[in-house]
């Protein structure tokens, strides 16, 4: 099956995700300090630009409470973020007026990011589009418009944390290309990258896809499937047993727990290396 071999290729080519940012690449640190020097808003503000995988309260909002089974590093990151992030940025900045909504593509962000930046003027922004874009546009348009959205954030003084979209069932060749586009943008624009795609395949190289026959007939809705992508083959899974849980088993079983974990570590690193101690 092509997606299995492709998964191993991803790991060989990508080689790192948010959990390995410190060891692999810090080339973004000084450029992001220069971006942050232009920032005129409120410290501790974090925007979430994305589609339904970002709009849902399963993303980011659960971290307002303390996840279960935190490692030492994750516990430190959580304490740092809890002490830094403004309260409205856990749950309040959800909805289309804040740059996240279901069924959207990068075209929507490209049309609206200026007004989002004006409304929130966020110190940092997590950006992830791509799951809906696959099949609606070519990778060239996706890369061009994502790059323009990133640049407009940077011009505002907003530090970008770019996230590569997850794999998609039956569209792995395209999903791979979109992930590569995100990697290219992050490298060339010198912004930190969360490679969610690679982190999923690292943990479940052969059975990440909840639409596979082996997961059919299991109890619960499409999000309860015990792997990282739900039964629809698109969205992250969210089995309740592993909700807001950062154990190793949860990070290979609950797709939203994994995304929250990766975002937490990445944002904590940005706080520590770029944002903390800034005076405005």
What do these coordinates show?
With 280 residues, the protein is an alpha/beta fold. It contains eleven helices and four strands. It has a four-stranded parallel beta sheet, sandwiched between helices. Helix 5 crosses helix 11. The longest helix has 21 residues. The chain is globular and about 55 Å long. The N terminus is likely disordered.
Number of helices: 11
Report the principal-axis shape.
Answer: globular
Distance between the termini: 54 Å
The number of E-state strands comes to 4
User: Mean pLDDT, as a whole number?
Assistant: 92
The proportion of strand residues reads 5-15%
What letter string, H or E per element, gives the SSE order?
A: HHHEHHHEHEHEHHH
As a percent range, the share of helical residues equals: 40-55%
Structural class, from secondary structure content? alpha/beta
C-alpha-based Rg, rounded: 17 Å
Unreliable stretches: 1-23
Q: How would you characterize the largest beta sheet?
A: 4 strands, parallel
- Main-sheet strand order equals 1-2-3-4
Write the layout of secondary structure elements.
Elements: H1 2-14, H2 21-24, H3 29-36, E1 46-50, H4 52-55, H5 72-84, H6 106-120, E2 124-128, H7 139-155, E3 159-164, H8 172-189, E4 193-195, H9 196-203, H10 248-251, H11 255-275
Parallel strand pairs: 1-2, 2-3, 3-4
